[in-house]
Amino acid sequence: MGREKLRRGRLKGPLGSPERPASALGFRLVLAVFGCLVLAAGTVVSVVAQAPLWLVVLLGAGFAASCVNVYWVARRLRYERPGC
Where is this region: Disordered (predicted)? Predict the structure, then answer.
């Protein structure tokens, strides 16, 4: 039979090879950091401008969640590219 069998399990090739293509985690980290900075600026502006308390709490919670997202993406990127 001339057809190749599909490989199961982990891919073994180096990152960026046809067997193991590079993921978009680097770009996702850039977007996560940008979102974190935007939410931090929004929280500061809402505190300075004496915005309603619900808006300050909402932006603060979004900032905390985006910081967790930055940490999570950075950990995944470090796991994927151990040499970096």
Answer: 1-21
Q: Which domain holds residue 39?
A: 26-80
Cα→Cα distances 49→53, 54, 63, Å? 11, 13, 18
Residue 14 falls inside a structural domain: no
Query: Could you tell me if residue 4 is inside a domain?
Result: no
Is residue 9 in some structural domain?
no
CA distance to 54, 70, 74, per residue, from 27 (Å) = 32, 12, 11
pLDDT per position as a tens digit, 24-60: 888 899 999 999 999 999 999 999 999 999 999 999 9
How many other CB atoms are there within 10 angstroms of residue 39's CB atom? 20
pTM for the complete prediction? 0.70
